[in-house]
Structures are given as C-alpha cells and as structure tokens.
C-alpha cells in the first residue's frame, strides 16, 4: 500500500467532520454535534489562518492494473506564535486514521509530510500536539515519531460546549 498526502479541499469537509466526530468519541467518549463539527471544519478549510488540513490517500492495486485510491486519514495544523522564540509552533490536531488502516504507516506519512513542510517554512520553530493523559497507545506512537513529552499541562476555561 502506498500512502500519499495532499492538502484537504472543501469537498473533503463532510468526511473530515465524520472523522472528527469518530475521534472525539473514540478518544474522549464525547458525542459532538455534527452540524457544529461540519461548520468548524468548513471554516478551517476556507481560512488558512485558522487551520490547514491534510488527507492521507492510500493506493492499492486491485489486479489487472487497476489502482484504487481512497482517503484513509487526516490531520489538521494550527499555528501558535512564540514571542520567546520569535517563531511559530505548528500544532498537530484532529488526527484520525481509519481503523482499517491503522498500524500501516498512515500516521507516519502524515507526520513526516508535515514535519518536512515545517522544516522548509521559514519561522516555524517546531511541532507540538496534545494527547489525552491516559492514551498510552498514542503517546507511544508519537514518541516513535521522535516527539517527546514537553512537560506541560493544559488548562482551559471553556465558554459553551
């Protein structure tokens, strides 16, 4: 199986919203409002200052020379300005790989694509993400990609859902 990464397009919004809902349910046992997720994904797709989405496309031969290409995973990037370092952290968020394609290099392909872009983009100082405290599988996966626990805890004051 070959995995290619492309920028997401507005036509991907429904699939990305479905994956975001699946990820929230799987990782945090949260049921999110589909209309809200779709609106959020659509807004991110239309405004690169808010977010940048990538889609992993798997290609597999079906015999007779036919190749099937299908979306199998995604991640979203957002930016955080660091005055300490005079540069941008790129935050990896909304990571999801279709369960049938996990442990097959999809996340690694997404991560390496984003890492390469970050290293080539002037002013980007690194990659960050947050992971649920009890999600040891994800923590091991990110460590295997070369990421390390940064030693921070996240606090929030939510205003609504």
From TrEMBL:
Keywords: Transferase. SUPFAM superfamilies: Acyl-CoA N-acyltransferases (Nat). The keyword Transferase applies. Residues 3-161 form the N-acetyltransferase domain. It holds the Pfam family Acetyltransf_1. This is GNAT family N-acetyltransferase. The keyword Transferase applies. Signal peptide: none annotated. It comes from the Bacteria. GO terms for molecular function: acyltransferase activity, transferring groups other than amino-acyl groups. InterPro entries: Acyl_CoA_acyltransferase (IPR016181), GNAT_dom (IPR000182).
């Amino acid at each position: 199986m070959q995995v290619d990464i492309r920028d997401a397009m507005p036509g991907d919004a429904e699939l990305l919203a479905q994956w975001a809902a699946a990820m929230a349910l799987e990782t945090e046992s949260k049921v999110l409002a589909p209309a809200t997720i779709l609106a959020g994904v659509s807004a991110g797709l239309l405004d690169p200052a808010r977010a940048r989405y990538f889609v992993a496309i798997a290609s597999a031969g079906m015999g007779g020379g036919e190749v099937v290409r299908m979306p199998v995973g995604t991640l979203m990037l957002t930016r955080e300005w660091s005055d300490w370092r005079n540069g941008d952290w790129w935050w990896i968020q909304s990571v999801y790989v279709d369960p049938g394609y996990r442990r097959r290099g999809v996340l690694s392909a997404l991560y390496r694509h984003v890492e390469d872009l970050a290293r080539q983009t002037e002013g980007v100082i690194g990659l960050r993400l947050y992971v649920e405290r009890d999600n040891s599988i994800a923590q091991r996966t990110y460590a295997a990609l070369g990421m390390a626990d940064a030693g921070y805890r996240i606090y929030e004051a939510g205003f609504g859902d």
